[in-house]
Amino acid sequence: MRKSVLLVASFTTMALLLGGCQSSLTGDSYSRDEARRVQTVRMGTIESLRPVKIEGTKTPIGGGAGAIVGGVAGSAVGGGRGSIVAAVIGAVAGGLAGSAAEEGLTRTQGVEITVREDDGSMRAYVQQVQQNEIFRVGERVRIMTVDGTSRVSH
């Protein structure tokens, strides 16, 4: 009974940790450090659009949470030395699975927006796709840049 409670608690902790790792890469999301900072605004016209995948985060949190869950689950197998070996194997397997799960859960769909700016330069910007925002080739857009981070908006 006690081990099943630990297992459920471990899985819940892992889910909460992985959910907290996600950050938004959309054009209308700003970090706390970017708020209230002066931005450079340029104008341009969209030349092309291309769907891309933005890979997920790869922090030690996913692997660590998976290792904890795997170790707890493995320790429930057998007794004595067998339990210790199973806990170690479970921790390694859980760490690998947790790391893969974190990357998969935080992976997102993005769009590469190639813009011919008014000064004649051509630049490409990648940002997360938003449900309510649709870009079209030929559309005029704003490019806002703050501290090296740029975003495209209508």
Automatic annotation (TrEMBL):
Keyword rRNA processing attributed: no
Sorted UniProt keywords: Lipoprotein, Membrane, Palmitate, Signal
PANTHER family: OUTER MEMBRANE LIPOPROTEIN SLYB, PTHR35603
Domain named Glycine zipper 2TM: residues: 61-101
Membrane topology, as annotated: Lipid-anchor
InterPro entries with a match to the protein in the record: Bact_OM_lipoprot/Surf_antigen, Gly_zipper_2TM_dom
Superkingdom of origin: Bacteria
Places the protein is found: Cell outer membrane
Pfam families noted in UniProt: Rick_17kDa_Anti
Protein name: Glycine zipper 2TM domain-containing protein
Signal peptide span: 1-19
Keyword Nucleus attributed: no
